Amino acid sequence: MASSRPKIDRFFLFSTLALAIAGFVMFLSASLGLLAGGTASFSTVAMKQAASLFIGIACFWTFSRIPYRLLRRVALFVLIGAVAVNLLLFIPSLALHVNGASRWINIGPLSFQPSEFLKIAFVIYLAAWIHFAKDRLGKMRYGLLPYAAIMGILGTLLLIQSDTDTLLIIGATGIVMLTIAGMPIRHTLLAGLLMAAVVVGVVALRPYALARVKVFLNPGAYAQSTGYQINQSLIAIGSGGLFGRGFGQSIQKFGYLPQPTDDSIFAVTAEEFGFVGASLLLALFCVFAASAFRVATRASDVFGSMVAVGIGTIVVIESFLNIAAMLGLVPVSGVPLLFVSHGGTALVIALMATGIVANVSRYNK
Q1: Residue 110: in which H helix or E strand, if any?
Q2: In this structure, what DSSP letter does residue 179 have?
Q3: Cβ neighbours of residue 341 under 8 Å, at least 6 residues apart?
């Protein structure tokens, strides 16, 4: 007898798996650059990423079967839990300092970035709020003011961590969700102005942010210092030509391009696969976004729709910020290229979040 269990939207399932598999293949190629640096073992890094991929797929499968409506009932507790995990960064014995910032928690052999949990918790909570206030978002006290209050709390927490990138991603995602849900355009513009004011304030008060802007405006002037990464990235991308040097044939990843498996992995991809390969990767992200929004339009309730919109928006904004930074279109941000860059936390959380969207698709109208 055929099973009557609702099935995952095939379009969304295909786009997620295609991104995960293509990202892992690109990561393996970029990891070969570690052989020249001597700072890490290729086999160790590759095995860790493979383990993260399998854990992420297991999380995807698990969350695709947990009824997403249960998350609405515990949304506030999910957000409080994510904030509590981020507060662990203020315990010196647990915080791991990387490049002058404390964004990682180190517990024995396990290290993870708690802000990744915060992104998804924010989406779940805001989706639950929108579900509650869906007919009243036109009033400021049900739309813009709650958003500003949440961003004030999370913004303070993230700015203390010097994690401006996550703040921008969360803030932009919230604006997209509220606008699609029916918040008036004038409130959207006001929210955008508030976010812009925060960015200007960070640039004015934080030297590291000001340095990024200076490099963005004139990368050639800092080619041997703070602008080294973006200049090497542009060399890698330009040398890829139309079809690239071929899989594994990147030259820049061997000691020339900083962080070839992390922030700069798109540059390695463009060098090896050329304009055509880089365009196909961009197309995969666009297909993923289209499939997530397709799930949102067919969701059986407002909460499910907003969860799909929020998670799809976070993946696209974060990934496109990384790509734009490597192309010199925005200041270098340090955000990973989701599904591709080295980073077990980001990969596992991304697949877990897409598992939630997959579950929403099971109950599509």
Answers
A1: strand 110-112
A2: H
A3: 27, 261, 262, 263, 265, 322
